[in-house]
Specification:
Radius of gyration: 13 Å
Shape: globular
Helix content: 40-55%
CATH topology: Transcription Regulator spoIIAA
């Protein structure tokens, strides 16, 4: 496995790009930058991106990762796309509440709920 291996698992679910993280801890600055670049490439390849980011395996998230999520959200919105977040650990969700990012993002308990919410 090379150092440039993807930190993401990307699948297509009936027109929705489903993204899951490989790492349990998304803390490393270089990793976060690479994740942001990978997701940006996915968004750029679509006209009206529908993206579901699942935090199923994630235990820790840095503030830099939150910043990257905001950037991704803005990029998707600029293309009239939709972003959903799902399966966020309660401790991580608390950070979304404190930073009021729970108002910015559409957050769902499960990936299935999130998939059902796309229009």
């Amino acid at each position: 496995m090379t150092a440039e291996a993807s930190r993401l698992r990307v699948t297509d679910d009936e027109g929705v790009t489903r993204i899951e993280f490989v790492d349990r801890n998304i803390l490393d600055e270089a990793n976060i930058q690479r994740i942001g670049e990978e997701i940006t490439e996915i968004i750029d390849a679509q006209t009206e991106p529908k993206v579901l980011i699942s935090f199923d395996n994630v235990d820790h998230l840095s503030s830099a990762a939150l910043g990257t999520l905001i950037t991704i959200n803005n990029k998707i919105r600029s293309k009239d796309g939709q972003l959903r977040l799902a399966n966020i650990d309660p401790q991580i969700y608390e950070v979304f509440v404190i930073t009021k990012l729970n108002k910015l993002f559409q957050i769902h308990d499960s990936a299935d709920d999130a998939l059902a919410s796309f229009s």
